[in-house]
């Protein structure tokens, strides 16, 4: 895992929230590695722990309820979890930058966008105010805002959602971070604007060579933009693979179900495949594999119902957290032949 | 039976239950609520706690029950209301156990109608049929000179209107636990009877202001447009008038009766409620579930009262709690300035004003105890209001 | 219905005139139809403007033309899909049809009754036959009412059922939408988004409506739940022969669900055609851009589609002062001369009957370079 190309590696991170109703295990034993200059996508349905994973990397998990209870995050050789708060502050915004889902609320309404970008620039770089302002104008131009000299003096409410997201991106990349965490950057936007923003991220990545952790629930976005993908379900990563391989041959039953249930252009009649049931609530996770109540295999299998599978490499480059990680056709055959032998499928 | 429990496990938690759970989490709010309940108990039972008439007395070998003979129509009204009120609370609690949630609303509505008509009819009957008596007999003197025997007095054997000029302005002693006032009445006794005034002022005044506020607010909020524009300007004008001085002026013109004070406080303090309800209705009108109700072709009555009001009333209830505290305070202030209820009817504010006697002495017990009573009551209501507001937090509402 | 009927030039001219007179081309298309009364819902020239007010005296300083003259018809049993980006007026169309917002102009005819001029009694009757499913599963259910009351209220108010019969009907509806009868006494906050949407569906079906308007019924749902709800709606359509007006912003969902698709941009329909035709041969530049913007999962391990798309520049202009001429021209790759000055009308173009496009540059056989 730790070859030279690794920029960030997340190792067995668990983040819990200690609430009145009980301990919400928002992230459990999550591990992945992001390579330099690549786009790593974290995909999953709402509430599965994507944002908390991102906040854990930034060490911004809301205190005092939330706590990273175990694991380590290594960023360019530095162990982030053992850094002081001061050391972390130097990394945040400077080397790792983050943009959020909600473009409407993540900018401060009482300052002009220029003010906010300049503040971000001056926080991390030793630059004069006038230099920072001209930088800000330049940043706006780079993120594709027309008439930046004028726009830099405007307030967030004078801009549309897409423009605000561009400004968030401008702020985030103004210090040339090596890692950009984009938490659902386009969920609140229209498809045409989404395409613009994703193109913009691609372009910036090409120019700066930064890595992107792209968090999204849209498999289409992942398929088009990501190099590597991790699929999350109920606080855990259930499958990690290179994007193309994952979509060509998903191995985890959840990934398979998701891909099959997706309405795609070209599907015009009949019924959609579905995953039965609903996403479990974090306070009432089922025992064993958390997907088992919805899994065609797990509903009948004792092991799935009692023992939770760990993420393991089932074949080169393919990590899956499932006792029966095969492609769907094969698995059905296995089970038909002999239900016992199918269980001995580790290796 | 087992079927019953089976069914109950499928009952959802209603919003009311959620709010109550949230409310009950804080010990302070429970303490405050208990204090208010205690005050109500004291106020309702005042004639039995402090009275110069004995419960039982034997005169000339015959048993008499002077306390009960001396209860007036208003006392009986209070008892009736208390009994009906308590039984309603018990019924609501029972319904929560045994009536399934889908028809609870209708049950509650029926209950409210029945109980309020019982109270209304009861009040009329009581005022018509219970005679006014003025029993000036001094039973204690009778006991003292052995004309009567076997007397059982209330724990505080003084009447609030009973004067005793020999015992004027006494500091606290074993005889008079909280001392006496300028005409020799027992302070504790007057404090207990005064709680009736304070609590009923709070209740009735806020009742009036809430009803007016809801009606005006609902009309402005639902219809909007020009109606709203004109209505809001009127509300703003009302708000700009300093209510307290208006009240003083009006009280100075009319008789100093309790009812007048309640009504005046009520009709000067509804503006806040109207604004709350209007704002809520504005928001609610655009919400999908109200739109859904409209698009299902439901009648306006159902939309306003089943869909909008229950969702918009929470802030008004919170405001009412603060309003009660405010009304108690205003009444106290009015009485302190001498515009309140006429003596000998006791009221906390009026007692407070007796702290500096005509002879210029500072009677600390007359200032301290009513002052504390006002302070704690107002504080308790405010804290309950705070807790209620926290419990009704919008976070909870959307969940 | 015959195959392709050649429309004589005079008829075409006449149609054009009709449009100018604000009469829908749905009506103008009568010659091709067996019978106008086939349409369960006909919307013609519908306009809904919202006044924009300002200042203390609330003076009207302009209008947001949320819906600006749209026309379509839905036959019984059909599903019409309305797609477009956020703010283009889809919801407003839905709400105007049931008069949740007052329409400014135009006509809505449901089952041969004029909706916009119906009096209160008539309107209530109409609303029983048209029901709505809303986008936000968290805002569309009254949080103070139990599921049983939410679903059963309309039945009770309409005196369709009471007492144990009511409970029976509600239970039946619950199981129809895939919920357990045990849920009848629960409150909405105890359900997940998908389950709430099922409750909404049950409520919408309680009065046995003829037309169901679904305003983005799945956009707020998780991916794995989306397909469940779509299947449910489809099954119910088969079972009850429902007619849908299906609003969505996801072209893939619409392709799966609808028979006819109308694409909206800034309050107008810019293209309308049968589904197969529209997806095979999108004519309007906006429809094309929309289609190419949808990120697609491709199952075969081909190189990623990065850079292969034609991204649309710019953003949707402010609805308060829309651009002159074709509203799409600031973003349109084909815009020129006439586009900036004159508004294109929705006309039948393309190879197949019933393919309407509002664009100056789309000729009958349009060949636009795919970029
Ligand atoms: N009550 C209103 N008052 C003023 N303007 C309104 C009102 N309702 C909608 N609009 C405006 O009308 C336009 C169309 O709104 P509408 O809600 O119909 O869009 P939509 O297509 O449903 O979008 P979405 O996909 O976001 O739901 C928008 O510009 C919106 O701001
Ligand atoms: N501040 C918090 N307090 C308690 N629970 C939280 C908090 N933030 C997130 N959670 C819980 O953690 C889980 C994962 O949340 P999140 O990472 O935001 O999901 P998503 O994958 O949609 O980004 C959810 O169940 C959520 O309710
Ligand atoms: S471990 Fe079992 S239940 Fe879990 S996904 Fe694999 S087969 Fe399904
Ligand atoms: S009319 Fe012109 S601007 Fe409008 S879509 Fe057609 S080509 Fe583009
Ligand atoms: Mg998130
Ligand atoms: Mg909408």
Overview in brief:
By secondary structure, chain B is mainly alpha-helical. Chain B is built from 19 helices and three strands.
Please give the structural blueprint:
The complex is a heterotrimer of chains A (347), B (399) and C (371).
Chain A: E1 6-19, E2 22-35, E3 39-43, H1 50-58, E4 66-75, E5 78-79, H2 85-91, E6 96-99, H3 113-124, H4 129-142, H5 148-151, H6 161-173, E7 179-183, H7 191-208, E8 211-216, H8 219-225, E9 228-233, E10 236-242, H9 243-248, H10 253-261, H11 302-306, E11 312-315, E12 318-320, H12 328-337, H13 339-343
Parallel strand pairs in A: 3-8, 3-9, 6-7, 7-8
Antiparallel strand pairs in A: 1-2, 1-4, 4-5, 9-10, 10-12, 11-12
Chain B: H1 2-8, H2 15-24, H3 27-44, H4 46-49, E1 56-59, E2 62-64, H5 66-70, H6 73-98, H7 101-129, H8 139-144, E3 148-152, H9 187-223, H10 225-240, H11 243-253, H12 258-268, H13 271-286, H14 288-295, H15 300-312, H16 314-336, H17 348-353, H18 364-391, H19 394-398
Antiparallel strand pairs in B: 1-2, 1-3
Helix pairs in contact in B: 2-18, 3-9, 3-18, 6-7, 9-10, 9-12, 9-13, 9-16, 10-13, 11-12, 13-15, 13-16, 14-15, 16-18
Chain C: H1 9-20, H2 25-28, E1 39-54, E2 59-75, E3 79-83, H3 90-97, E4 105-110, E5 113-114, H4 120-129, E6 130-133, H5 147-157, H6 163-176, H7 193-205, E7 211-215, H8 223-240, E8 243-248, H9 251-257, E9 260-265, E10 268-274, H10 275-280, H11 285-293, H12 338-341, E11 347-348, E12 356-357
């Amino acid at each position: 895992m730790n070859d030279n190309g690794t920029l960030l590696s997340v190792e067995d991170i668990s983040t819990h929230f200690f609430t009145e109703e009980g301990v919400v295990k928002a992230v459990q034993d999550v591990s992945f590695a992001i390579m330099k200059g690549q786009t790593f996508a974290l995909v999953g349905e709402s509430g599965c722990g994507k944002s908390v994973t991102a906040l854990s990397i930034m060490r911004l998990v809301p205190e005092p309820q939330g706590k990273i209870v175990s694991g380590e995050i290594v960023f360019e050789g530095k162990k982030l979890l053992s850094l002081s708060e001061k050391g972390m502050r130097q990394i945040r915004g400077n080397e790792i930058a983050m943009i959020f889902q909600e473009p409407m609320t993540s900018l401060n309404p009482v300052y002009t966008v220029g003010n906010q970008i300049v503040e971000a620039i001056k926080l991390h770089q030793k630059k004069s105010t006038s230099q920072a302002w001209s930088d800000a104008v330049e940043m706006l131009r780079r993120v594709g805002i027309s008439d930046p000299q004028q726009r830099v003096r405007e307030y967030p409410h004078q801009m549309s959602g897409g423009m605000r997201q561009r400004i968030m991106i401008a702020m985030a990349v103004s210090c040339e971070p090596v890692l950009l965490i984009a938490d659902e950057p386009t969920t609140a936007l229209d498809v045409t604007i989404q395409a613009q923003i994703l193109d913009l991220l691609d372009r910036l990545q090409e120019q700066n060579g930064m890595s992107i952790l792209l968090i999204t629930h849209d498999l289409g976005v992942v398929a088009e933009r990501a190099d590597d993908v991790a699929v999350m379900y109920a606080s855990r990563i259930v499958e990690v693979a290179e994007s193309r391989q994952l979509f060509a041959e998903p191995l985890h039953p959840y990934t398979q179900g998701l891909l099959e249930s997706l309405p795609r252009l070209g599907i015009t009649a009949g019924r959609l495949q579905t995953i039965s049931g609903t996403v479990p609530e974090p306070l009432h996770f089922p025992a064993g594999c958390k997907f088992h109540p919805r899994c065609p295999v797990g509903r009948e299998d004792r092991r799935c119902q009692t023992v939770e599978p760990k993420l393991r490499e089932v074949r080169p480059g393919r990590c899956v957290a499932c006792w029966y990680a095969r492609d769907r056709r094969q698995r059905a055959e296995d089970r038909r032949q002999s239900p016992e032998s199918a269980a001995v499928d580790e290796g | 039976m087992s079927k019953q429990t089976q069914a109950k496990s499928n009952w959802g938690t209603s919003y009311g239950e959620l709010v109550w759970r949230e409310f009950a989490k804080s010990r302070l709010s429970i303490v405050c609520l208990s204090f208010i309940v205690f005050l109500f108990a004291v106020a309702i039972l005042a004639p039995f706690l402090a009275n110069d008439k004995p419960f039982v007395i034997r005169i000339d070998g015959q048993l008499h029950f002077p306390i009960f003979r001396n209860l007036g129509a208003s006392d009986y009204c209070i008892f009736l209301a208390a009994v009906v009120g308590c039984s309603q609370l018990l019924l609501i609690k029972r319904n929560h156990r045994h009536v399934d949630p889908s028809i609870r609303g209708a049950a509650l509505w029926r209950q409210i109608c029945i109980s309020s008509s019982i109270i209304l009819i009861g009040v009329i009957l009581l005022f018509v049929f219970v005679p006014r008596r003025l029993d000036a007999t001094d039973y204690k003197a009778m006991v003292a000179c052995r004309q009567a025997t076997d007397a059982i007095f209330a724990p505080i054997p003084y009447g609030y209107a009973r004067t005793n000029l020999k015992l004027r302005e006494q500091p606290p002693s074993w005889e008079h636990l909280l001392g006496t006032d300028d005409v020799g009445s027992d302070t504790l006794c007057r404090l207990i009877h005064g709680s009736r005034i304070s609590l009923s002022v709070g209740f009735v005044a806020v009742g009036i202001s809430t009803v007016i506020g809801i009606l005006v607010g609902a009309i402005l909020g639902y219809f909007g447009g020009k109606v709203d524009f004109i209505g809001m300007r009127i509300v703003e004008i009302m708000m700009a008038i300093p209510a307290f001085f208006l009240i003083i002026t009006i009280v100075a013109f009319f008789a100093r009766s309790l009812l007048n004070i309640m009504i005046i406080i009520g009709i000067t303090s509804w503006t806040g409620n109207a604004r709350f309800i209007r704002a809520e209705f504005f928001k609610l009108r655009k919400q999908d579930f109200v739109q859904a109700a409209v698009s299902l072709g439901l009648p306006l009555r159902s939309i306003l009262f089943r869909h909008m009001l229950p969702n918009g009333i929470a802030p008004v209830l919170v405001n009412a709690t603060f309003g009660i505290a405010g009304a108690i305070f205003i009444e106290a202030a009015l009485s302190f300035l001498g515009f309140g209820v006429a003596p000998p009817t006791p009221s906390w504010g009026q007692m407070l004003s007796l702290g500096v006697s005509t002879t210029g002495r500072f009677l600390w017990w007359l200032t301290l105890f009513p002052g504390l009573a006002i302070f704690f009551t107002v504080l308790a209501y405010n804290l309950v209001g705070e807790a209620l507001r926290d419990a009704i937090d919008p976070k909870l509402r959307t969940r | 219905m015959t195959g392709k009927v050649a429309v004589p030039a005079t008829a075409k001219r006449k149609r054009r005139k009709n449009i100018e007179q604000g009469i829908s081309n749905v009506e103008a298309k009568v010659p091709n139809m067996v019978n106008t009364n086939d349409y369960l819902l006909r919307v013609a020239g519908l306009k809904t403007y919202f006044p924009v007010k300002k200042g203390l005296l609330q003076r009207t300083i302009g209008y947001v033309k949320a819906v600006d003259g749209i026309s379509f018809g839905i036959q019984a049993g059909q599903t019409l899909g309305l797609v477009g980006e956020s703010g283009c007026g889809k919801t407003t169309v839905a709400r105007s049809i049931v008069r949740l917002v007052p329409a400014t102009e135009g006509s809505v005819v449901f089952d041969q009754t004029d909706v916009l001029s119906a009096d209160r009694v008539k309107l209530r009757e109409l609303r029983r036959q048209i029901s709505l499913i809303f986008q936000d599963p968290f805002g569309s259910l009254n949080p103070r009412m139990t599921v049983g009351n939410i679903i059963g209220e309309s039945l009770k108010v309409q005196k369709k059922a009471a007492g144990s019969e009511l409970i029976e009907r509600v239970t039946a509806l619950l199981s129809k939408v895939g919920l357990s009868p045990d849920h009848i006494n629960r409150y909405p906050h105890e359900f997940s988004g998908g389950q709430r949407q099922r409750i909404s569906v049950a409520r919408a079906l309680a009065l046995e409506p003829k037309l169901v308007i679904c305003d983005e019924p799945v956009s707020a749902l998780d991916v794995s739940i989306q397909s469940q709800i779509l299947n449910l709606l489809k099954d119910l359509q088969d079972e009850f022969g429902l007619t849908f007006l299906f609003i969505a912003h996801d072209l893939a969902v619409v392709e799966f669900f609808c028979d006819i698709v109308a694409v909206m941009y800034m309050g107008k329909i810019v293209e309308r055609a049968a589904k197969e035709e529209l997806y095979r041969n999108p004519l309007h530049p906006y429809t094309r851009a929309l289609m190419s913007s949808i990120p697609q999962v491709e199952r075969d391990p081909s190189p990623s589609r990065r850079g292969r798309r034609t991204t649309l520049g710019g953003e949707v202009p402010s609805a308060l002062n829309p651009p002159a001429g074709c509203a799409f021209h600031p973003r349109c790759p084909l815009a020129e001369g006439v586009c900036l000055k004159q508004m294109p009308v929705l006309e039948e173009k393309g190879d197949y009957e019933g393919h309407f496009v509002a664009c100056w540059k789309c000729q009958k056989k349009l060949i636009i370079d795919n970029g």
